[in-house]
Amino acid sequence: MNVPNRLTILRVIMIPLFVIAMLWQSFPCSDYIAAALFIAACITDFFDGYLARKYNQVTTIGKFMDPLADKLLVCAALICFLADPGTRMPVWVVIIIISREFIISGFRLAAAEKGVTIAASYWGKVKTVVQMAMSILLIFDFTHPIFRIIEDIFIYSALILTVISLVDYIYKNRDIMKDMK
Hints:
It contains 7 helices and no strands. The chain is mainly α. It is globular, with a radius of gyration of 17 Å. The model has no long low-confidence stretch (mean pLDDT about 90).
C-alpha cells in the first residue's frame, strides 16, 4: 500500500476520534481536540491527492477511498453539529448534503459494476473544501457577529456547491446510467 492510500486510511481512522471529541463535551478542551483532529484529517486529504499525483501513485482504491473518506468526515461533522442543541447548522441543509453523498455513492457503485471508476470532479473538490472550511468554523463556534455571518456564508455556499456538483456529476456521467434496468 502506497503513502497516499495510507493517508486516506489514517483519515478514516481519525473520524471516530473526531466524533468522540465532538460529542464528549464534558472532556476538557474537547472542541479544540475535535478541531485539531478535523484539521489534521483535512490536511491528509490534501497530501494524499498531492502525493498520488506527484509520484504517479494514483490507484483505483485511492480513487474510490479518497472521496469516500471525505464524505465520511464531512457527514460525521454535520451529524455532530445536529447533536448540539445550539447548532447553527439547519437540519434541511444537512439532509440535502448527506442525500447528495448517498446519490453520488450509489452512482459510483453503478459505475463500478460496469467496470468504470469515476474520480472526483472539480466541482466536487471545491464543494469538499468549502464544506471542510465551514465545518472548521462551526467546530470553533465563534460568537462574534462577524463570524456568524461568515459561518452563514460558508453554510449556504456549501449547499449551493453541493447541488451544483451533484448536477455536474450526473450530467457528465449520464452515459453510465444508460442501459441500467
